[in-house]
Amino acid sequence: MFRKVILEKGLNTLVKPGEMEYIELDIFRGEKGDSYSFNSEDYEIGLIILTGKLNVTVDDIKYDDLGARRNVFDGNAYALYIPNNKEVKLEALENVEVAICRTRVKTEEDVKLIKPEDVIIRDVGVHNWRRDVKDIIDRRIKAKRLLIGETINPPGNWSSYPPHKHDTNNYPEEVKMEEVYFYKVNPPNGFGLQRVYTPERDIDNVYLIEDNSLLLINRGYHPVVSAPGYQLYYLWILAGDIRESIINDDPNHKWIKAVEKIIKESKR
């Protein structure tokens, strides 16, 4: 499912309970002085500060002045991993957008603050499929299901390339994890294209990505490209019963990885 999202002030529910097996997604959009409170109940939550600065209180622990980015292309995110049964309060110190990524699972792990310097930046691909992949809530965080990060495509570049999927449990070749993409474009009047297709071609769709678009991925390969002149960002949220990102590349295009090695070797 793909759709354009219009973010209003307050809580915006992007992925409702029941739309996906594991993932739910809200975005809180606030101005200075606005607040939003909730209990994590039986969810584990990845709280990703997209833009702006705010205070976050989890039970009796207050995290002041979190956030530093003017936009999602401006450095790395602050984030919090929040386990079950925590009282959470967000207090906006300026205009903010905060992603609240949820999955229902029992966990007794500790709250974990992830600072921008904790984010691992991977330089993935080469040539016009090179991109920055930023791991925020990864294997270093003792979550039960969630893996969360951000990807930035330079203008005209591809990501999720070669096309890969993760919709079948065939360990250790592939692990089933559903995924959500939430996109931003820089400048915001730009665009990109997203293809989703299955080996059987019962799904084969191309979508026009604009600022604040949303994609729910249950099945299929899902390569994405930004238009020349425009950076493309997407927050990606993965969740499944097996918390491992083991992908299966499209056999028609996986040869591109051998080319990557040749190009990188030639530049040494």
> How would you describe the oligomerization state of the chains in this entry?
single chain
Given the C-alpha coordinates, what overall shape results?
globular
Task: Classify the beta-strand content into a percent band.
Answer: over 45%
What is the topology, as strand order, of the major beta sheet? 1-20-17-22-14-13-12
In short:
The protein is mainly beta. The protein contains 1 helix and 23 strands. It has one helix at 256-266, and strands spanning 2-4, 10-15, 23-30, 35-39, 43-51, 54-58, 61-66, 79-82, 87-92, 96-104, 112-114, 120-124, 131-137, 147-153, 158-159, 164-165, 178-186, 192-197, 204-209, 213-217, 224-226, 231-239, 248-249.
Overview of this structure, please?
The chain is mainly β and 268 residues long. The chain has one domain: Sandwich (Jelly Rolls). It is built from 1 helix and 23 strands. The strands form 5 sheets. It has a 7-stranded antiparallel sheet, with no helix packed on it. A 6-stranded antiparallel sheet has the order 2-3-10-5-8-11, with no helix packed on it. A 4-stranded antiparallel sheet has the order 4-9-6-7, with no helix packed on it. β18 and β19 form a beta hairpin. The longest helix is centred in the C-terminal third of the chain and has 11 residues. It is globular. The mean pLDDT is 97.
